[in-house]
Amino acid sequence: MKQFPRSDLLNRLPKQFFASLVKKAGQYIEKGFDVINLGQGNPDQPTPDHIVSKLQEAATNPINHKYSPFQGFGYLKQAVADFYQREYGVKIHPEKEVAILFGGKAGLVELPQCLLNPGDNVLVPDPGYPDYWSGVAMAKAEMVTMPLKEENQFLPKYDEIADDVLEKAKLMFLNYPNNPTGAIATPDFFAETVELAEKYDICIVHDFAYGAIGFDGVKPTSFLQTKGAKEVGIEIYTLSKTYNMAGWRVAFAVGNESVISSLELLQDHLYVSLFGAVQEAAAMALTGPQDCVRELNQMYERRRNVLIEGLRSIGWNVTAPKGSFFAWLKVPQGFTSEEFANFLLEKAHIIVAPGIGFGTYGEGYVRVGLLSSEERLKEAVRRISSLEIFKK
Ligand SMILES: Cc1ncc(COP(=O)(O)O)c(C=O)c1O
Questions:
Q1: What is d(CA 378, CA 189) in angstroms, rounded to the nearest whole number?
Q2: Measured from the CB, is residue 246 less than 6 Å from ligand 1?
Q3: pTM score > 0.90 for this model?
Q4: Bridge partners, 36 (sequence order)
C-alpha cells in the first residue's frame, strides 16, 4: 500500500507519553492478572438518570434530527448563564459570553489556533494536562513552562518569570482544582493573575474541569469570580466530570467576548454544533437537580480519605489532594516516577501515571485516580503494604 507522508502539523504534535504504560498494562490484563487501574482519568459512575431520560426524550424530537444552529441552541447558552449565576454569582451574557464546545479538550486545543501566531509565547503549567501542548504545537507557538512546586502549593510564581518572556506571552493556561496535583487556587492568586494579565496583555484560560470537586468543605473558586477576570480571559467548564458525562462530549467556554467570538468563528469552519438532544440534556444537567453533584463530591472525598489514610498507615507520607479526583504522591526514595510506576505494575499489578508524563516538574511523583471503589482502593493499599519497601 502506498504510504502518504504526514503533514508537518501532525509531525509537530507531542508524543503520547502514556501509550507505552497502557500497552504494558494491557499485557498484564491479557495474562489474567487482576490489575487495579488507577492511572486514568475516566469517571467510573454513570450519568444521572434525569439527564439520560432527557436525552432519550429529546432524541425522538424531529427538530433535533436537523442541523443544530451553528453556535448552539440559545436555551443551552441561557442554561450556562443561569448555572454561573447560581453557582458562582457571576453574570454572563448568554449570547456574547458563552461558546458551546465538543468537550473541554476541543476548546483547549482550538484556543491557541484562535489567538496565536507562530512564535508567540504561551505559558503552561508544569506539571500540566498534556492537551495544552497539542494546541500550542498546532499553532506553531512557543511553550514556556511555569513550574508548579509543592512548596508554593502548586501555584506558579509570577515573579520568577522573566520580564521578556511575559512581554512576549499572549496566552496562559491555568487549571484549578489541578490535574495532576490536586491543588486548588486561592482568590488572591486569581487576583494576582488578573493584575499580571492586564499589565502584559496576556489572555488567561482557566480550565475549570474539576470545578465541582473540592474537599474539606471548600468549594473551588471560579476564575470569573475575580474582579476584572472577564476583561482578561475565559474559563472552560466541562460536563464530563461534574455530571459523569465524559462520553457525551459537551463543555462550554465563558468570559471575554472577543475570545468567545474567535472560538465560535473557528468552530463555524470545523463543525455545525452538538446533536440537539445532547444540548437539551446538557441544559437539564446544568439547571436540573444538583444532589447528584453533591453526592459525587462526597464519594470522591470518601475515596480520597480511604487512600490517603491507608497509605499513611503503612508509612508512606503522602499529601491529601484538596480537589479534583487525583492524588499526587511523592515516590519513595531511589525511584524515578517511571521506575516506580513500573514497579507498582510489576509487583502489585497497580497502574498509576508517572509524573514525568505531565512535565519536568512532575518528576518524583505519581498520579493516582480516585476512580475506583473504596474496596478497590483498600485492596491497592493492601497490595502496596505487602511490598518489601513498605515493610517496617
Ligand atoms: C485538566 C483537564 N482539562 C480538560 C479535560 C477535558 O475534559 P473533556 O474533554 O472531557 O471536557 C480533562 C479531562 O481529563 C482534564 O483533566
A1: 36
A2: yes
A3: yes
A4: 350
Rounded to 5°, the CA angle 341-323-367 comes to 5
Burial class (CB in 10 A: 0-12, 13-18, 19+), 112: buried
Q: Are 324 and 182 in contact (CB under 8 A)?
A: yes
Only one residue has cell 460536563, namely 239
Give the C-alpha separation, 52 to 281, whole Å. Answer: 7
Show pLDDT as tens, one digit a residue, over the chain (392 residues): 999 999 999 999 998 777 777 888 888 899 999 999 999 889 999 999 999 999 999 999 999 999 999 999 999 999 999 999 999 999 999 999 999 999 999 999 999 999 999 999 999 999 999 999 999 999 999 999 999 999 999 999 999 999 999 999 999 999 999 999 999 999 999 999 999 999 999 999 999 999 999 999 999 999 999 999 999 999 999 999 999 999 999 999 999 999 999 999 999 999 999 999 999 999 999 999 999 999 999 999 999 999 999 999 999 999 999 999 999 999 999 999 999 999 999 999 999 999 999 999 999 999 999 999 999 999 999 999 999 888 76
Q: Which of 44, 47, 101, 105 to mutate to test the pocket of ligand 1 (most atoms within 8 A of CB)?
A: 105
3-state secondary structure at position 47: coil
Cell triple for 92: 454572563
Determine the distance separating the centroid of ligand 1 and the alpha carbon of 105, expressed in angstroms: 6
Alpha carbon of 383 to ligand 1 centroid (Å): 30
